[in-house]
User: What shape does this take?
Amino acid sequence: MFDFSLAGLSALAADPVVWVSLATLIVMEVVLGIDNLIFISIVTNRLPPEKRESARRIGIGLALILRLALLGTVAFIVTLTAPVITVWGQGFSWRDLILIAGGLFLVWKATKEIHHHVDPDDGPDVFDGGAQAISFGAVIGQILLLDMVFSVDSIITAVGMTPHVPVMVIAVVVAVAVMLFAAAPLANFINENPTVVMLALGFLIMIGMTLIAEGFGADVPKGYVYTAMAFAALIEGLNMMSRRARRKSPQAPT
Assistant: This one.
């Protein structure tokens, strides 16, 4: 079913269908990586400035390692879509359970971050007993957990688009390289714009709810989700331009 051969790459390179599938898959992997990148940007910004860059690089490096490792077991990954338990007539596969667990974690984490931004007091809260500080190891652990969720979803998406494993590998490597290039600018932009932080956390809640819905078998077209995100980002961009214009304009006489 799956082509693991590198010897056949020259034959694949001569097939225009393979090039189209590669280009499409790269775009899909980059788009799917946006979710992961937003989470990495948010969680690493809680670290001291001197540790953020290394945490982002380690997190994205782990994403690449996980995706390539999963590609090596792609035949097994496909079996994750087979139901393993049934609850009230609803079948759940390992993929469904992973998506539900990841979605719940993402909703919890985003809600916790929103709470800390709305009420930055160091006192105890209902989420973590007042532990405001976050360690480097805790950040890497959270990134690794979400990397696993997004990696499984990413590889299953790739499997549905092409049977050629070398094509999947190229698409994954390119997508992770884009994430690595964009990580620092995105994290800095989010950190320097408080309203963008809230917008990004709202995105994470929406993504988490989407993962949960997909885990329960609901078909949520990704196009709707990313269109909503793009529209919200456009409105926030207009708000930022408006605030910048007001700061530059002279005060109107009273």
Q: What stands out?
A: The longest strand covers residues 83-87. The beta strands are 83-87, 90-93. The mean pLDDT is 77. The chain has nine helices and two strands.
